[in-house]
Design goal:
alpha+beta, four-stranded antiparallel beta sheet
Length: 150
């Protein structure tokens, strides 16, 4: 991750720990080659249309920006699953991520806007001011940047 985002993530993890919550970083920066390998494996297993709802094409992944981190917990066996959003840890992340500059990038009910399925584990660093505004108003990054019509 880029330094600003990595520092904020450390603070988020410390804040969680102070509240008795243990989070694990699962997947951060990915190179083009790694993303290409992942995407190709998902396409082979699920077909391109379905794979594109949960994995970005190489060159289009937020993980390549150094601003994204997938987080998980022991409650879901450290897997990246939608059930994470219903765990104590996932609820803590949803409630507190913005305080540290992160948003849950792919929100439930906003799949038609983001193009991706709900991913309660996928955090994107946007800075505290932006994250708080987006969270308070229930906006996706696309809506906040005005790249989609409401």
């Amino acid at each position: 991750m880029v330094k600003e985002a990595a520092d904020a993530l450390e603070q988020l993890f410390a804040g969680a720990s102070n509240d008795g919550i243990t989070l694990h970083a699962q997947s951060g920066y990915r190179s083009y080659g790694t993303q290409n390998m992942l995407y190709d494996s998902y396409v082979r297993a699920h077909g391109e249309e379905e794979a594109s709802t949960f994995s970005a094409k190489p060159g289009q992944s937020e993980h390549q920006t150094g601003l994204a981190m997938d987080v998980t917990s022991d409650s879901v066996d450290n897997q990246l699953v939608q059930e994470f959003g219903e765990t104590v840890e996932g609820k803590w992340v949803a409630e507190h991520a913005a305080e540290f500059g992160f948003i849950i990038r792919f929100q439930q009910g906003k799949e038609d806007i983001t193009g991706y399925m709900y991913e309660p584990w996928h955090l994107r660093y946007v800075g505290v001011e932006h994250a708080k505004y987006m969270t308070e108003h229930g906006l996706t990054l696309e809506e906040y940047l005005g790249v989609v019509e409401k």
